Amino acid sequence: MTAPQHHIPEPMMAAYVAGNLPQPFAVVVATHISMCDECRARHETHLALGGAVLESLEDAPVSDAMRAGLFAMLDEPAPEEPAAPKPRGIYPAPLADMVPGDGPRWRSIGMGARQSILWRGKEGSLRLLYIPAGQAVPDHSHNGLELTLVLQGSFSDEGGRFGVGDVEVADEAVEHTPLAGIDSPCICLAATDAPLRFSGMIPRLLQPVFRI
Ligand SMILES: [Zn+2]
Q1: Which InterPro entries match (predicted)?
Q2: CATH classification (class only), 1-212
Q3: How remote is the CA of residue 41 from the centroid of ligand 1, in Å?
């Protein structure tokens, strides 16, 4: 795999480290970090900076009782860490547990494209998108922010070419038409913080059926 060319924007990385991202976006960011050396290093720098801020607060006076309590806690064995999730197929570790063992539950969204909703809540939705090789995703715009991470194949749109590991961030001003590469079907992880609003007539009619 070539190194990703499209990364997590800085404000989004900062919000992720602070725990302020909606859940669907946090999963996409964690998945990209697991695929991208550059963003893994940026993430570690953010964590170290956060740790430095905490250390600078350490000068507050600590009572003897509190100090004794803290040392007692340090002596206790650490709780056992749960087993780290493992990557499976094209699904990196942060995603693997969200995809059923025998594969995603695909539903047709027309024109050969399919989706599988992994998570849906007040904060938005997270889904897998399957686009046949050389095909376009129905032209759509959205009310909020959309974050798309390529897991297999590639797609191109007005924002450039996106291969495995690349992230596209599209806001409501972007009306884009992703076109899958011709070599293989494109499978993406897509997070939105508001329902997509398809601009083509037929997809709009299908929307209540497929709950896009
Ligand atoms: Zn990156």
Answers
A1: Anti-sigma_ChrR, Anti_sigma_zinc_sf, ChrR-like_cupin_dom, RmlC-like_jellyroll, RmlC_Cupin_sf
A2: mainly beta
A3: 9
